[in-house]
Amino acid sequence: MRAIIVRPPTPGAQLIDVPSPDLAPGTVGVDVLECGICGTDRDIVEGKYGRVPTGLPYLILGHENLGRVREITAGINGFVEGDLVVATVRRGCGRCRFCLTNQSDFCETGDFTERGIKGAPGYMADRYAEFPQYLVRVPPRLGSVAVLLEPLSVVEKAILQGQRILDRKEPTPGRPRVEPVRALVAGTGAVGMLAAIVLAMRGYEVTAIDRHGDDTFAGRLLARIGAQHVNVATGFDALGAARFDLVVEATGSVAVDFSLIVRLGPNGVLVLTGIPDAAGPPSTVPGGPLFRDVVLGNQAIVGSVNANRTYFESGLQDLAAAEDRWPGLVSSLITSRRPLEQYAAVLAARPGGEVKSVLVVRRDDAPRSS
Ligand SMILES: [Zn+2]
Ligand SMILES: [Zn+2]
Asked: Residue 364: which pLDDT band, with cuts at 50, 70 and 90?
């Protein structure tokens, strides 16, 4: 079968023929339809990240996926041939308390693998085989947007973790909060836009920041969901005096991270999802006033990575709700779909105006409403 392979830390990606995966007892064989591309994939292609599976000379790239069940081995319930499925990414270490309770996203040993990223083959190939506990069945009506489910699962986790920390302060009995809860999203790539959409559906008053004017795809989409857009290209002063209850960061910029801490309101929570470059230049910040306010304001800064199956399931519900509320909005985040053969151009650099680029592995003629 065809596969896009990498050999980190050697840079570069190739389309080659590889052996098809064995359909071991208890597994489901899946034809891959689409793979989304994100910064992690590009970092792996640059050789900055990623690990080849033990005993193999290459890693099959790709973690954001959508496929169709092709074959089912004996004894599997809950799937039929032709089902649309999205596979989760992380496989637990099998030892720590979190991996043993299906929460490998909180693995404590670090000995997990991640398909397409760290030590396990990914999904940029014609087929893969997987155990059913790692497959999430997708209703046919969500087929046109389901390739976004993996990045959405990361957003679902980040927002729920932030919400849980916010919830440590119960509303005063008999005095429900009257003003809406204010959320700030930093970054208007796929993760930032999905976060803005989910937060808007949760009833937050949403502001999103990036370094562009309003007359962009992101600016128009934010207007459609009733969110405010602020261009901070010339600095965070553009936000005026605004403070926020929940801040979701999706930029990976250390400078932005520090600028966001001072935007937290009393009891506010900053959730970091962007992964800064560990080799980036050091930053100098006035730590005294910064952390003084964190303490005096009961504020929290928390990192969030990966997502377990429960977040894929809540993501499916949010995809359906978003399709009902704003038809076609989520699918508009997919700014390009290109055949697998064009992998080199798509992986080389982020094209201008990209929100989510998708490689089409297999053209699927079954009806897909959007
Ligand atoms: Zn990704
Ligand atoms: Zn673990």
From this structure: confident
Q: How far apart are CA 251 and CA 236, in angstroms?
A: 14
Distance from the CA of 338 to the center of ligand 1, in angstroms?
17
Confidence of residue 289 (pLDDT cuts 50, 70, 90): very high
Ligand closest to 63 (CA) is: 1
Q: How far is the CA of 51 from the centre of ligand 2 (A)?
A: 18
Q: Which of 128, 130, 148, 126 is nearest to 138 (CA)?
A: 148
Query: Tens digit of pLDDT for each residue in 44-63?
Result: 999 999 999 999 999 999 99
> 4: closest CA among 123, 111, 105?
123
Which ligand is nearest the CA of 150, by number? 1
Q: Which domains does the chain have, with CATH numbers?
A: 2-145+332-360 (3.90.180.10), 154-303 (3.40.50.720)
131 CA → ligand 2 middle, Å: 18
